[in-house]
Amino acid sequence: MSAFLALVRRDVALAVRRGGEAALTLGFFVVTISLFPFGVGPDPELLGRIAAGIVWVTALLAATISLDRLFRPDLEDGSLDLLALSPLPLEAVVVAKCLAHWLVTGLPVTLLAPLMGLMLQLDLQAYLPLIVTLAIGTPAISLTGAIGASLVLGARRGGALIGLLVLPLYVPVLIFGISAVEATLAGLPVMPHILIETAILFVTLPLAAFAGAGALRLAME
User: Fold this and answer.
1) pTM as predicted
2) Is the backbone of residue 189 left (phi > 0), alpha (psi -120 to 50) or beta?
3) What is the span of the domain harbouring residue 157?
4) How many domains does the chain have?
5) Per-residue pLDDT reduced to its tens digit, 14-25
């Protein structure tokens, strides 16, 4: 566990030291959402109706643009070989790097989502389900993205390939995240949507660990 936490701290520290990754993610998230009122008009009713979808889709895209650097720097400088030779299983390495990716990208986006919802005239009763589903769904996004990032590791234009691979896999997370907010606004039970979102996270965790580790082993051969 100490090695796992040390790897998480190391990746978070590198991301903070570089500065660009977290700033790029948050900048993309804020700027993209800010453009929607200009595109669809300033009508508060219209913006409030589509606000959850705007926040969720933008959060998915913001997380995707940083996936190319999830494993690539470690492969290029040889750190990935050292991690593979360490006592920490490669599956745990994948999970640790996903956790660090979420702390740098998914968590700030989740915390910033209420402010973006306020700008989009989102109904106040929808804030809690939006935050809860983002807190559950964004780790699943990082885990799913790790599968794509490991599969295209070493390929040219890997960033574009990652998007093509993982964006269709994000659809279930997106659907139930938005459905939870819409159910709240319609006065319907919201827990089924949150439970399904949680189940997706629990399924994605072992799948990303084993699939990502297998792809990394192939990339290092």
Assistant:
1) 0.89
2) beta
3) 2-220
4) 1
5) 877 766 667 788
